[in-house]
What does this fold into?
Amino acid sequence: MAEFPKRAKTVIIGLGGIVGASVAHHLIERGWDDIVGIDQSGIPTDIGSTAHASDFCYTTSHDFLSCWTTLYSIGFYEKMGHYSRIGGLEVARVGDDARMDEIKRKVASAKAFGTRARLIGRAEIKERFPLIEEVLVQGGLWDPDAGLVIPRSQTVAGELIDRAPASTREWIETGVLSRREIPHQLKHHLHKPKPA
It folds into this structure.
């Protein structure tokens, strides 16, 4: 484990995942420096949520922030050459009207927030997914912008961390430190004690 620095302007806990790596990348891109990133495992992480994520992005949600951040992320990954826009499909079975109503609400929200998701019927569902039994579905949602981060978001996290200029950052893999010990180390090394 690297020694904790005595000072830092910014500390990112959980640097090894896609979110922490993206935060570091965007701060550095905007001119921030003196950034310390900490992760319990390797960087990129092999134990956090990024390590077992599906890497699937979809633009349907009932809140604007989720739609906006997903659309931003898709564009970001595409610029890096790490996004495959394959489209996403959700279906409602015949007789499951509650599910169909939820799909309609998702499409209404998605359209309100600027995505291209739309309702589709049985025939188009069958066309997009030939293995489905058309008579068993009543309708669905098609999201043409849904897709996969390729090859994995773990790989993208590693690339973002590797791109950071050495002069702006220090990455620390805490390894054996437990979650209880990290706050103690941060308190001890990154904060000056208040005068009595």
